Amino acid sequence: MDFNDTPEEAKFRKEAYDWLKDNAPCTELKSDWSDVLNLLDRAAVLFSFEQLGGAEACMDMAKEYAMGRYAFGRSIASFQAIKHKLADMFIAVELARSNCYYGAWALSTDAPELPTAAATARVSASQAYHECSKENIQTHGGMGFTWEFDCHLYYRRCRQLAANIGSQAVWKDKLISSLERANQI
Q: Three-state SS string across the chain, please?
């Protein structure tokens, strides 16, 4: 494979490959896919925390802008429509936080509820990040789409994270099937 490396980069790549080959051996996956599913559940919890952080950053950015922006002689944070947007964002973030903590507990204790907890955390964090990034742009008004503010970067990151390790529909299906299995017991 040609990486168009300089000789120094090629040497570094070879040394890194040799080190990884000797110090990080791979093991075979089980034939029943359980290792891959377990890895996806663990990754979902970690991605959920990243989404939670992004949602909270969007909420804080919207709140700060609303408190500092004045229209018609008063802060736009005093308008009922903006208050409702911020309250909805707060509720979404807190729900996602609770579900992420549930996922972290299941991950740290190797609980059998990990598939349910991971799917719950993933779905709620994806929804919270999407809502907060969208409402952050709306709170900023026309300025939210410009390069003057970072609102659009959070929205892009939200869409990218929502597609990693399966779409929201995939995780909703995993959540439903996990809950159905738990209720059959």
A: CCCCCCHHHHHHHHHHHHHHHHHCCCCCCCCCCHHHHHHHHHHHHHHHHHHHHHHHHHHHHHHHHHHHCEECCEEHHHCHHHHHHHHHHHHHHHHHHHHHHHHHHHHHHCCCCHHHHHHHHHHHHHHHHHHHHHHHHHHHHHHHHCCCCCHHHHHHHHHHHHHCCCCHHHHHHHHHHHHHHHHHC
Residue 72, Cβ neighbours under 10 Å: how many? 8
Phi/psi for 70 (5° steps) reads: -115, 135
pTM score: 0.80
For domain 36-184, which architecture applies?
Up-down Bundle (1.20)
For 70: left if phi > 0, alpha if psi spans -120 to 50, otherwise beta; the answer is: beta
Rounded to the nearest 10 degrees, the angle between the axes of helix 151-163 and helix 114-140 is 160
Which region among 14-28, 43-57, 70-84, 152-166 has the lowest average model confidence (pLDDT)?
Answer: 14-28
Read off the pLDDT of residues 17-48 as tens digits, 9 standing for 90 and up: 777 667 666 666 556 678 888 889 999 999 99
- Where on the phi/psi map is residue 25: left (φ > 0), alpha (ψ -120 to 50), or beta? beta
Q: Work out the pLDDT band at 1, boundaries 50, 70, 90.
A: very low
